Amino acid sequence: MIGAALLGALALGSVPAAMFLLQDHLIFFPQPLVGPGPAPRPGLEEVEIAGADGTRLRGWLALPRQRPAPLVLYFGGNAEEVSWLLEMTPRLGDWGFLLVNFRGYGRSEGQPGERALFADALRLHDWASARPDVDAARIAVMGRSLGSGVAVHLAAERPLAGVVLVTPFDSLTAVAQHHYPWLPVRWMLRHPFDSLSRAPRLQAPLLCLAAGSDRIIPSSHSARLYAAWGGPKRWIEFPAADHDSVATEPGYWPAIAEFLAGLR
């Protein structure tokens, strides 16, 4: 008969194994596009961009009247379908928005993963910079939560006018270790999203927006990334905001608009 201690050891060992096998489902929460999508309007273009492996990525390009326009590439959170941000485009001033859903999100094809999302970010940047109606010298990136890791990778691989990071992390490994201190996360995680190692060599201006009451990505993880950033930077923390409410803070969009207006 198997002793209680051995049963306990087997049960304990099964938890890391299950976490390893199910980690994609714990990191990525693909969301569909509900309904027909945004209504057509002047300056709004529905886009389909092929990834390097042929996967079709779908979203929207919203540009102001003045062309060529400066542009913000947006990468969202792990449970975010990005079309809702189109209504926020006027808050960007004379900047446009490129909003393309991650693989498996919205109407984009494929399965998300760190390597695939990194490759897609480069593809989206290169597609946008080649358009005559986009000012290739004034492309910025904005990443929220999981998307901050994608944004930092893009900043490390392409010249950018500026970077906006919302509730970012130093690495997904560090955040996971915070939540699961009893697991060997460093050896288990296939998607480390290690922004901290890239930050010291990045020279693009940074605006970091942190949520002081964030229980998902504690602001200490944002602060470590911010401290390591190699270029000019500004930190704004909203003390009462949590991970999901930070975008509703009164100073949130004005801070982004002010930052973008200063990028030349």
Shape: globular
Helix content: 25-40%
Question: Average pLDDT, to the nearest integer?
Answer: 92
User: Which regions contain 5 or more consecutive residues with pLDDT less than 50?
Assistant: 1-13
| Structural class by sheet pairing and helices | alpha/beta
Largest sheet: 8 strands, mixed
Strand content: 15-25%
Domains, number: 1
Q: Could you spell the SSE succession in H and E letters?
A: HEEEEHEHEHHEHEH
Q: Specify the CATH architecture.
A: 3-Layer(aba) Sandwich
What is the CATH third-level topology name? Rossmann fold
- For the terminal residues, how far apart are their CA atoms? 73 Å
| CATH classification, class level | Alpha Beta
CATH superfamily: Alpha/Beta hydrolase fold, catalytic domain
Number of strands: 8
Give, in spatial order, the strands making up the sheet with the most strands: 1-2-4-3-5-6-7-8
What's the SSE blueprint?
Layout: H1 4-27, E1 44-50, E2 56-62, E3 69-75, E4 96-100, H2 114-129, E5 134-144, H3 146-157, E6 162-166, H4 172-179, H5 185-188, E7 206-211, H6 219-228, E8 233-238, H7 252-261
Parallel strand pairs: 3-4, 3-5, 5-6, 6-7, 7-8
Antiparallel strand pairs: 1-2, 2-4
Walk me through what this model shows.
The chain has 264 residues and is an alpha/beta fold. It has one domain: Alpha/Beta hydrolase fold, catalytic domain (Rossmann fold, 3-Layer(aba) Sandwich), CATH 3.40.50.1820. Helix content is 32%, strand content 20%. It is built from 7 helices and 8 strands. The protein has helices at 4-27, 114-129, 146-157, 172-179, 185-188, 219-228, 252-261; strands spanning 44-50, 56-62, 69-75, 96-100, 134-144, 162-166, 206-211, 233-238. The N and C termini lie far apart (73 Å).
